[in-house]
Amino acid sequence: MRFCQTLTLKDDPELIRKYIEVHKHVWPEIIEGQHQVGILSMEIYAHGNQLFMVVETCDDFDWERDMARLATLPRQAEWEAYVSQFQGCDANATSAEKWLLMDKIFDSEK
């Protein structure tokens, strides 16, 4: 399954640069946790301060259930708190409140 999300960073070139740099060194526990809940891969694209994330999951992945489980895994809350300094949303917001799921509106294969 594929899920797409968007998030807006603070409109500050230095913070955007740091956010991109942070994602070159994602903590191993974060990647391990994603795999534990059924996330096969995750990609983030940036355009200015706008982010677009593509999440590929196993077929039985349930977004609500598995993302809630991910939030409880080691260092996940710490990671969310750390990256919140770059994000243009409430620092106490959950990942689900920060990253907004998008609706597919076009598919050239269908």
Largest sheet: 4 strands, antiparallel
Terminal CA distance: 16 Å
Q: Label the structural class.
A: alpha+beta
| Net shape | globular
> Helix tally?
5
Structure, described:
With 110 residues, the protein is of the alpha+beta class. Helix content is 37%, strand content 24%. It contains five helices and four strands. A four-stranded antiparallel beta sheet has the order 2-3-1-4. Helix 2 packs antiparallel against helix 3. 11% of the residues are buried. The model has no long low-confidence stretch (mean pLDDT 95).
Short description:
The protein is of the alpha+beta class and 110 residues long. Helices cover 37% and strands 24% of the residues. A hairpin with a 2-residue loop joins β2 (39-47) and β3.
Keywords:
110 residues; alpha+beta; four-stranded antiparallel β-sheet; 5 helices; 4 strands; 24% strand
Detail the topology: elements first, then pairings:
Elements: E1 2-8, H1 13-22, H2 28-37, E2 39-47, E3 50-57, H3 63-71, H4 76-83, H5 95-98, E4 100-101
Antiparallel strand pairs: 1-3, 1-4, 2-3
Helix pairs in contact: 2-3
